[in-house]
Design goal:
By secondary structure, the chain is α/β, with parallel strands linked by helices. The protein has two domains: 180 residues, Periplasmic binding protein-like II (D-Maltodextrin-Binding Protein, domain 2, 3-Layer(aba) Sandwich), CATH 3.40.190; 92 residues, Periplasmic binding protein-like II (D-Maltodextrin-Binding Protein, domain 2). Strands 2-1-3-10-4 form a five-stranded mixed β-sheet, with helices on both faces. Strand 1, helix 2 and strand 2 form a beta-alpha-beta unit. Helix 2 packs across helix 10 and helix 10 crosses helix 11. The chain is globular.
């Protein structure tokens, strides 16, 4: 009797451990964020928590980097399959990065601001010759500081740009007085203002024609698993639709992910949500601004054929 019961129990356990008929195994997709602290990258976390990627057969392995350059290196080294980064990082493709843009993720750079100490420069005009930190050379933050200098009439190098990696180190350097300003996401900026440890000096609302963020896929993924890209983008844009429709839950999840005061994230949501693309189609005007910026910053010698740097073949139909 005991033996019979043991056999039946083992069979029962085995039956429940086996996949149900018709169940499909999830495909693992390694996804990287250029930086960990930006609100605009939280759709990845929100989509994971809401199950939108699993609905499309994907299990996401998430990694965050200290800037675009680090993330592009990881993609080139086959450490990740998809990268969520900046528009200016499209220049890496011209230089040989084995990736391609697969979605225009966000337009004008409403996410970012230049922050100074409370006793720091009072206007953008006072930034001439000052030190402002960015994440990495060639990144979106680098370009925006250079563009601020150019618009002040100083050329792209009128502000001394200091690539410094992780945001925590940049904020510490600002507090020490090693630098005069930091370009950062608006959530961190609002948090510093609330603590009276910083002051927002420059916003970038004037750059309406721009491609702030792009979703990238490696050439290997494009060649071998095109359906995984399609599934990821379906999950991503379902997440964007959810975020637009449900501010309360979006703020609650993002506050946990970013470890910020929900009031700060609520204000960030209002500032940033308009910049998200609903369909991922690339803006021709934004791409033209990017192409011009590559030459202005001496990233590339001439404007590239931008049509070779991205594809819309994987966007949801």
């Amino acid at each position: 009797m005991k033996r019979t019961i043991s056999v039946l129990a083992a069979a029962f356990a085995l039956a429940f451990s086996m996949p149900h008929a018709g169940a499909q195994a999830l495909q693992t997709l390694r996804v990287g964020k250029a930086v960990p602290e930006a609100f605009t990258f939280t759709p990845l976390d929100i989509g994971m928590r809401k199950g939108f990627f699993k609905e499309n057969g994907l299990e996401i392995q998430e990694t965050a980097f200290a800037g675009d350059a680090k993330m592009q290196q990881a993609m080139a080294g086959n450490s990740i399959d998809i990268g969520i980064g900046s528009g200016p990082a499209l220049a890496f493709i011209v230089k040989g990065a084995p990736v391609k843009g697969v979605a225009d993720m966000a337009g004008p750079p409403l996410l970012l601001a230049i922050v100074v100490r409370p006793d720091g420069p009072k206007t953008a005009a006072a930034l001439k010759g000052k030190k402002v930190s960015v994440s990495t050379a060639g990144s979106l933050t680098y370009w925006l500081v250079s563009e601020t200098s150019r618009r002040q009439g100083w050329g792209p190098n009128g502000i001394e740009i200091q690539p410094m990696g992780a945001m925590a180190g940049q904020i510490a350097a600002l507090h020490r007085g090693d630098i005069d300003g930091v370009i950062m996401d608006i959530a961190n900026a609002l948090d510093l203002e609330k603590k009276h440890e910083g002051r927002i000096l420059v916003r970038f609302n004037y750059l309406q024609d721009f491609v702030t963020h792009v979703i990238y896929a490696t050439s290997t993924l494009i060649a071998t698993k095109p359906d995984a890209i399609r599934g990821f983008l379906k999950g991503w844009f379902k997440t964007i639709a959810f975020m637009r429709a449900d501010k309360a839950e979006t703020v609650a999840i993002a506050a946990q992910v970013l470890q910020k005061d929900p009031d700060i994230i609520s204000r960030t949501y209002d500032e940033v949500i308009p910049m998200f693309s609903a369909d991922g189609k690339f803006s021709s005007q934004g791409l033209a601004v990017l192409a011009k910026s590559f030459v202005e910053l001496h990233t590339l010698p001439t404007e590239p054929d931008m049509s070779k740097l991205y594809t819309e073949a994987f966007l949801p139909r």
